[in-house]
Write a structure and sequence with these properties.
Blueprint (H helix, E strand, L loop, with lengths): L1 H24 L3 H12 L2 H9 L1 H4 L3 H9 L6 H19 L12 H28 L29 H12 L5 E5 L6 H10 L1 H7 L3 E7 L4 H11 L10 H15 L4 E8 L4 H5 L8 E7 L8 E4 L5 H11 L12 H11 L3 H11 L4 H11 L8 H14 L4 H9 L9 E2 H11 L7 H12 L4 E4 L15 E4 L2 H11 L9 E6 L24 E7 L16 E7 L2 E3 L12 E6 L5 E4 L12 E5 L1 E2 L11 E5 L4 H4 L6 H4 L5 E5 L19 E5 L19 E3 L21 E3 L21 E4 L19 E4 L1 H8 L9 E3 L16
Helix pairs in contact: 1-6, 1-7, 2-7, 6-7, 8-9, 11-12, 14-15, 14-16, 15-17, 16-18, 17-18, 18-22, 19-21
Length: 810
């Protein structure tokens, strides 16, 4: 009985992985080449298959094709044959295709079991190779689009009142002869939600298949960036566009290639002034539809669908759901009071969600106060009125000012862009004196999420994310109206008295520093503690001479290939946190980097999609985070050791670095280092022998370093190490013998490390509380359970779905 369960479970896992290989292997020419190369590089394995051919009993022509025509074999055949081979080995293991000559006792069965384990590992490795390759994009022509829609948000789990609008919108989109459909309505009415539901509708998917593209414009759309993302999605080499016109021409070629079958393009959140940009997406190809969503009813876009407010019954249903009034332990107020609150919302879903969630589990007194405050405004008069209404919600709930302050910080980032939770943790640790490990910050974020003032997105779940050490896959999505509310809240004081100063430069504006009504901002009087600068390729190069001596947090939101830090940064003597995020496709090159050396109070730097130049010495820097950055020039071509540049560094995070082959020179001499996270760096093959010198290291994450071939013996000297994550280090053959000297190790994460052997010294890990691993590795750990009574072995559910990969570049 138990053997049958094991057989079914393993067979299902193999089929899942096999299916993924087949799907990914045919997605682009580069992936096909990987599979051909994999077979070529595993000649010994193929010889083994030949030996077992009689027992595995595949058709003779298949095995001959595999041997004689490996280079020219059809890629679908290669994928499916490789999968069949692993499944056949599995069947031999459980006796379903076993004969007497093969069933040679427990020893041979054990060898077959090991073979199965190795082949499962190899299949995982192929998936990793396909995943890595999907970021390199070395193809010269148009490839086959990936087998999932582009940019479509997750299908909303709960909606009310959208069935009829969806039916009407679907009729227009599917109607012959209609090329552009406009979905319009007030902000917060649910246009994006309705467009998303349309993309997930079975009838719509039946017509357009996987050729559904979803792009967001917002106030300042960047045509080149949008087109670059589309090229990347289709598995094509991304051109270096010289202008928007060049991007538009290339876009036409791409859409014609995709549009050989039916295609739907959703252009979400179009603002006035962007109509001409939408026109560039109109291409003369058959059965190509464009759905535009906007608060403005543009007459030039033809067919219109107007999304109206919810009828009262639907509004009540949505409100009761958001206010959690159906829960048995909820304190349900008087029904008349519920009706009053719903009527104030005027059927606007965003207002219903925010007000409903804010009143959940609150006393009747607060409900009455909310009704009194909100009854003074009609929130459907304009977006300004809606913002005033939402502001009153914050005012009523001002018992916790930290919530309000942190909400306003969300307005410091660009519209319709994901906000990294780790960025907020860095900011709030310095500006709000929250704890450094993110526990208090996550409590605030969850509160904002519960109030529907922000949405938390976990792009990919890692087991170690649950330990309050790391939230690299956690992001915040903010509705554009709520972003406007955050900015509105931050701009109620005169410009020179604001705590946050937000500057957006989207074209050459010689007087960008003028305040409202052309009143000159007197920078010498500015008291802003946080400065956010958003700019694109049209930014002016000549900054005025301004002084912002009180700034502690500086945020750059870039959409440009090159950028120079402004000279006034040199005078920011109180600057503690620097955050530079590039939202373009290609990494941005930063000039004037050397001025950071004069900022003696700078403690934290976070760079994303940046080509990092040579660092200058920063003696007081405590934390450095590099995400999707090119770092080779900074660390390998620098004459100075990193231990000299950052002598007091306590935390280093490097994620998704394509050019990192080894740790920076001198890293092991930074004895102050407590947290080291090197993740998704596929070219990292080894750690230095002197790694054990990092005697104060408490956390080490090497997640998804797929080429890492071993841990140094000196790792046993890390007596303060409490958490180690080596998950998805698929090339790791074993843990070193001295591993058992990690006396303070409490958490070990090693999923997808099936071939990693455990040394006997494991028995000495008396403080080890949790090991998260695969079933194969769990069996090895079970042998140590009698010696480690406090140990919990956790085997998470296997997930080989790689669809999360496309979120990294969005």
């Amino acid at each position: 009985m138990e053997e049958t369960k094991q057989r079914v479970a393993l067979q299902e896992r193999l089929r899942m992985v096999s299916s993924e290989i087949v799907e990914k292997g045919q997605s682009s020419e580069s992936n096909k080449q990987i599979l051909r190369s994999t077979l070529k590089d595993n000649a010994a394995v193929v010889q083994e298959i030949k030996q077992y051919n009689e027992h595995l009993n595949p058709p003779r022509e298949e095995i001959n094709t595999l041997f004689g025509e490996k280079e020219n074999a059809d890629e679908e055949f290669v994928c499916k044959w490789f999968s069949k081979w692993c499944l056949s080995l599995f069947l031999c293991r459980f006796g379903q295709k076993r004969d007497d000559s093969f069933a040679g006792g427990a020893e041979k069965q054990g060898l077959v079991a090991k073979d199965i384990e190795e082949k499962l590992y190899k299949m995982r490795e192929i998936l990793e190779l396909l995943s890595k390759r999907s970021f390199e994009k070395n193809l010269g022509g148009f490839g086959t689009p990936l087998k999932f829609p582009f940019g479509v948000p997750e299908n909303p789990k709960f909606t009310v009142g959208l069935d009829e609008p969806l039916s009407k919108l679907k009729i227009e989109v599917l109607r012959d002869g209609v090329s552009v459909v406009l979905l319009t309505g007030l902000g917060g009415m649910g246009k994006t939600t309705l467009a998303t539901k349309l993309c997930w509708d079975e009838q719509v998917k039946g017509k357009f298949g996987e050729n559904i593209l979803f792009v967001t414009f917002s106030k300042t759309p960047q045509l080149k960036i949008i087109v670059e993302r589309l090229f990347e999605h289709c598995g094509c080499q991304v051109p270096d566009f010289q202008s928007d016109e060049d991007a538009a021409n290339q876009l036409g070629l791409l859409l014609r290639q995709i549009g050989r079958s039916s295609m739907l393009l959703v252009v979400d959140d179009v603002w006035p002034g962007s109509e001409a940009l939408v026109q560039k997406f109109k291409v003369q190809i058959p059965d190509y539809k464009i759905l535009v969503t906007s608060r403005v009813a543009f007459p030039s876009f033809g067919t219109q669908c107007i999304l109206k407010p919810l009828v009262h019954e639907d509004a009540v249903t949505l409100f009761r759901h958001c206010a959690l009034l159906e829960e048995s332990n909820s304190s349900i107020p008087d029904e008349e009071l519920v009706q009053k609150v719903v009527r104030i919302c005027k059927g606007l879903p965003l207002a219903i969600k925010v007000i409903g969630r804010s009143l959940s589990h609150q006393p009747s007194e607060l409900w009455l106060r909310m009704v009194e405050e909100l009854s003074q405004h009609s929130i459907l008069d304009s977006n300004t009125e809606l913002l005033t209404c939402l502001q009153k919600i914050l005012n009523v709930l001002e018992d916790d000012p930290a919530i309000k302050e942190c909400f306003m910080d969300l307005g410091l980032f660009p519209e319709d862009q994901r906000i990294s939770v780790t960025t907020l943790i860095d900011m709030w640790a310095e500006s709000c004196s929250l704890d450094d490990n993110g526990t208090e910050a996550m409590a605030i974020i969850k509160k904002l999420d519960s109030m529907n003032l922000a949405n938390v997105l976990v792009a990919r779940k890692n087991a170690s994310d649950t330990d309050n050490y790391y939230y690299s896959n956690h992001f915040i999505i903010l509705h554009d109206l709520l972003r406007e509310l955050a900015i509105y809240q931050s701009t109620q004081e005169p410009a020179e008295e604001r705590k946050r100063l937000i500057i957006e430069i989207n074209q050459n504006k010689p007087h960008w520093w003028l305040g409202e009504k052309s009143k000159l901002l007197k920078p010498q009087q500015a008291t802003a503690q946080t400065l956010s600068i958003s700019t694109d390729e049209n930014c002016c190069s000549d900054w005025p001479q301004i002084q912002l001596a009180q700034v502690e947090v500086l945020i750059f939101n870039l959409r440009t290939k090159q950028y120079s830090f402004p000279d006034f940064m040199e005078e920011m003597n109180k600057l503690k946190v620097l955050i530079v995020t590039n939202y373009s496709f290609y990494p941005s090159e930063i000039n004037n980097f050397e001025l950071l050396g004069s900022l003696s109070n700078l403690k934290r730097i976070r760079l994303e999609r940046i080509s990092v130049p040579s660092f200058v010495a920063m003696k007081n820097l405590k934390k450095l985070s590099l995400y999707l950055c090119n770092i080779k020039q900074a660390f390998e071509n620098n004459d100075m050791l990193i231990s000299y540049i950052f002598p007091n560094l306590e935390e280093l995070n490097i994620d998704y670095s394509k050019d990192m082959v080894g740790l920076p020179k001198g890293l092991c001499d930074i004895i102050s280092l407590k947290k080291l996270s090197i993740t998704n760096c596929h070219k990292l093959s080894a750690l230095p022998r002197e790694f054990g010198k990092l005697e104060n290291l408490e956390l080490l994450r090497l997640n998804s370093c797929t080429d890492l071939e071993g841990l140094p013996d000196s790792i046993g000297r890390l007596s303060n190490l409490r958490l180690l994550d080596i998950s998805n280090c698929i090339s790791l053959p074993n843990l070193p013998e001295d591993f058992g000297n990690l006396f303070n190790l409490q958490n070990l994460y090693m999923t997808s490390c099936a071939r990693c052997e455990l040394p006997p010294s494991i028995a000495n890990l008396e403080n080890l509380k949790e090991v998260v691993c695969d079933e194969e590795t769990a069996a090895s750990w079970e042998d140590f359970k009698p010696m480690l009574p406090n140990l919990k072995i956790d085997v998470p559910q296997v997930d080989v779905n790689l669809n999360w990969l496309h979120t990294i570049s969005s």
